[in-house]
Amino acid sequence: MPFAVAIVGRPNVGKSTLFNRLVGRRLALVDETPGVTRDRRTGDAHLGDLRFTVIDTAGFEEARDDSLPARMRAQTERAVAEADLALLLIDARAGVIPLDAEFANLLRKSPTPVVLVANKCEGRLGATGVIDAFALGFGDPVAISAEHGEGLADLYDAIAPHAAAAADEAPAADEATGVLQLAIVGRPNVGKSTLINRLLGEERLLTGPEPGITRDAIAVAWRYRGRDIRLVDTAGLRRSARVAEKLERLSVEDTLRAVRFAQVVVLVLDANDMLERQDLTIARMVIDEGRAFVVAANKWDLVTDKTAALRRLRDRIETSLPQVHGLRPVTVSALAGKNLDRLLDAVLAAYELWNRRVPTSALNRWLGDAVEAHPPPLVAGRRLKLRYGAQIKTRPPTFALFVSRPEKLPDSYSRYLVNSLRDSFDLPGVPIRLLLRKGKNPYAPER
Questions:
Q1: Could you count the other beta carbons within 10 Å of the beta carbon of residue 325?
Q2: How many helices (H) and strands (E) does the chain have?
Q3: CA distances, 61 to each of 64, 208, 223 (Å)
Q4: What is the pLDDT of residue 68?
Q5: N or C: which end of the chain has fewer CB within 10 A?
Q6: Of the candidates 99, 96, 162, 97, which has an alpha carbon nearest to the alpha carbon of residue 134?
Q7: DSSP characters for 151-185?
């Protein structure tokens, strides 16, 4: 990881707002509710000519037991240990409170250098808090307003000396490095974060029996068999009728955004309650977005009759998700670490199919055979003509067929063509888009 800067502090001092300001877009959820951020979130930040990795953290809490706040605190401490620099944020309008002082004492014991930042200094309301911040013992505080973008030049001057050795190590763009974007989605409490932790081999994400722990879509860089992968953990998606709170709506929007930017999406199911209505809703949303798709039945070690359960799951997929005909689910146990290699092999295979390109000559030979085996219907006494086809894009495979009267071609015949395409060119489980276009009449007069 390049030069890394962790943003730390007690709840509601503006850490996520500063994070969004540094990365240049609203990646982290921001709300007035304390404790919105729970997991560590990383982003590619830029400040003037500085390029670095910035880490958003949960608000510092006084907890050392097994509770959720204690696990959040452990994540923050780990972020500080991994970072090259920590920005300790305080709320200048509220001044220095005992929790700020306690956190400052903790940071003094860490080898990670600290820059003190007084946030919310717009206007004159924060002047007293800036003066009080000197008592924390980290030198001159940097006065900023993350929400309004004020004081960033002073923040640059504070970070630059620490980043001098890594100032030119800008992270490469995804397209240049071929990073595979892999989003993990599903209902709450199906084991998404546990799965990612097991893949990474560390407790990178908060887990626990409490539903709805994950709120942000958290991206983690990883490498598997020489392949760079960005794992994206997402908030659990409940039925829309049950989503009432503003914060949960923001989490849902963040998850949907993660799906739109993903290349492969793994839908995690609870093996004891597979493919219920909400699972199917999520699956159809992923398919409509045209993402490569993998289904993982988690907690498989808890299933008693595995053969019958797998048969039911496969039948349900074939019946309820015909858009990805041929999709084979992968059974895993994230907690026990079983079958994770099979899951990743399925992810890479789905990605390859998603990028598959069919030669035009082979496509038109298939079209001739498909029409001969099952001719299109008659319209007003004349048979529709399918003249030729071409693949116009990949990701997902998208084909254009030129038809004499495309608006008259029945949906049932289009489904027949898609299924025939899938079988003929070995495209199981991948969304296929078929676009019907009007073929040019060679006998029509030129205009």
A1: 18
A2: 13, 17
A3: 9, 18, 32
A4: 57
A5: C
A6: 96
A7: THHHHHHHHHHHHGGGTT-PPPPHHHHT-EEEEEE
pLDDT given for residue 22 in this prediction? 92
Which pLDDT value is given to residue 176?
A: 38
Q: How far apart are CA 333 and CA 194, in angstroms?
A: 10
Beta strand pairing status for 142-143 and 85-91? unpaired
- Amino acid, single-letter form, for residue 283: A
Closest by CA position to 21, among listed 72, 56, 49: 56
Res 396: pLDDT: 93
Dist CA 106 CA 74 (whole Å): 12
The 85-91 sheet, strands edge to edge:
41-47, 50-56, 4-8, 85-91, 114-119, 142-143
Residues 141 and 116 sit within 8 Å (Cβ to Cβ): yes
Tokens, residue 266: 């793994």
The pLDDT value recorded for residue 321 is 94
Give the tokens for residue 64.
């050392």
Eight-class DSSP state of 150: B
DSSP annotation of 14 reads S
Distance, in Å, from the CA atom of 439 to the CA atom of 447, rounded to the nearest integer, reads 16
Block means of pLDDT (10 residues each) for the chain, 447 residues, are 83 88 73 53 84 83 59 75 89 88 87 90 80 88 90 91 57 54 91 90 67 65 90 78 56 80 94 88 92 95 93 94 93 94 96 93 94 91 90 92 92 95 94 86 49
* pTM of this prediction exceeds 0.85: no
- Residues 3-32, buried b or exposed e (16+ Cβ, 10 A)? bbbbbbbbbbbbbbbbbbbbbeeebbbbee
What is the Cα–Cα distance from 145 to 142, expressed in whole angstroms?
A: 10
Tokens of residue 139, six digits: 């030198």
| Rounded CA separation 57/67 (Å) | 17
Q: Tell me if 8 sits within 8 A of 103, measured CB to CB.
A: yes
Question: How far apart (Å, rounded) are the C-alpha atoms in residues 422 and 430?
Answer: 9
**Among 274, 261, 251, 87, residue whose Cα is nearest residue 162:** 87
User: Taking the CB of residue 269, how many other CB atoms lie within 10 A of it?
Assistant: 26
Which pLDDT belongs to residue 172? Answer: 39
- Other beta carbons within 10 angstroms of residue 184's beta carbon come to 28
Residue 272: its pLDDT value, please? 87
